[in-house]
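Subject: SEC-C domain-containing protein structure
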Amino acid sequence: MKQQKHIEKLSQLTKSSGFIFVLVKILFNDFIGTTETLFNKNVFEHLNHNEFSFLIGLWLKNANVDEVDTERIEEMEAHTYEIMENLHNSFLEDYYETRDENASFYERFTHGGMLKEAMFYSSDGAYDLQYLSLINHKFTYDKEWLQLNKDLDLIVSELFYKNISDKLEIKINQLKIKKNIPFYQHFLDSVCLTKEEITNNKKTYESLLNHLSIDIEQPNNKNLNDLGDFNIFKEKPIIKIASNKYFIPSLFAISESLYESPFYWMILDKAYSSKASYNRGKVAEEMTKNILLKIFPECSVFQNIIINKTKNDQITDIDILAISGNFGIIFQIKSKKLTSLSKNGNLDAIKKDFKAAIEDAFNQGIVAKESLLNPEGLIFNCENTNFSINNLRGIEEYYIVTIVLENYPALTHQSHVMLGETNTEVPVTLNIFDLDLLVKYLNKPVNFLDYISKRVKFSKKYKAENEMGYLAYHLKHGLTEPKTDIVGLDYSWGQSIDQIYYRERRQKKTEKFQTKKFQRNDSCPCHSGLKFKKCCGKV
């Protein structure tokens, strides 16, 4: 595989003294800036979070803390981007060398290397605030274990994150170059905090720091040799680089780790692992229902419907059923994750993981749909006391949506290529964060149902990188019958949702400041470092 050659070059490069400054330059170039700058960029000229995390992981494995040769930093930065680009291109080179000219469209993309490429170079799949807002519910039944075994209280996660985010924002906005300090050191210092700054001397914050931080002086990531291998940075994204200095290269990585890492800690406890998995499945259904209740009335959302032929002969079950007018949506929910084998391009593992996370749920939905359309003689039992077979009368069509609890990389792409050839319609497959955004921007049952119906109807007519690409196109033009065989929606459609989301987030922050009265000599709330009277308070 050509990828290994480029990964080895990256590994050697990260051994160079001063590579931390290359990481800082990439951080400022690709991940720090205004909303308009970040979400109008050409993604092919910048690294994504997976690429950046992998680079940091290799650096953690090979870190050289010797005296820095600052004259080579620009050269090393250019070389890093070059190797990363060659690494990405190598997937296509492998594909063209091994492809079968007689293979169908779907067979060509159902290829271990191409699926690995799609997963690694996919978009983030969630926003940091989404991770943070759902953490408490996700681990609501595991609070006792986390408190007893990890001394953790995840209820403060959002405040912990906000504290770090606010302090870094201030430092970056106040960044000033001093002649007696090397140029690159200024930029590194602006993305570093002390223990006291991170914890605010709070025990709950200190406990989170202990679980999310790693010491650069310790051996790390010795088994990180491929893109899908375990990377300690994903679990511990705060890096201790000196006695009281913590390097924070990615706020997004902190939010992601807070959402995902606790489950892995729990399943390592053999006495608790089965309970943790049970709780995970339970909250996945609850979280889905709670999101749907933002737009559907409670009397139209039903959970855990068991469908039997006879008292002891179960046909199937439905996790969530939402009804509006003459239509219904069957939500089948899974909490499965990708294994390392899948992330490294093992096709058998990819198919196995996909079957457990998506295909089985979709097939279950098909059986459920047939039962709902032909309910006579069947027995329905539901968690909701207000559900009866009368709720099904007049329903003309049901749509199937599968939900996964985590960010499942390249979810819509995998569904398209893995199920497109064997099904007349490609199923709508969402992660919990996609569902959250669909409900946010399609904020009435009629709008939501219209979108889902068209996503199903034209599922083979449009192809986007992720669900946000479909949503953005629908909001602007509407998903309609295209004049061509297929319409490809590039990454810029998803970026338009990013812009809307973060612009709204910034507006809320601005409104919060506007409701607070500032005295003329107060520090300006924009974190410029100036007094209010000399900055935003100027007449």
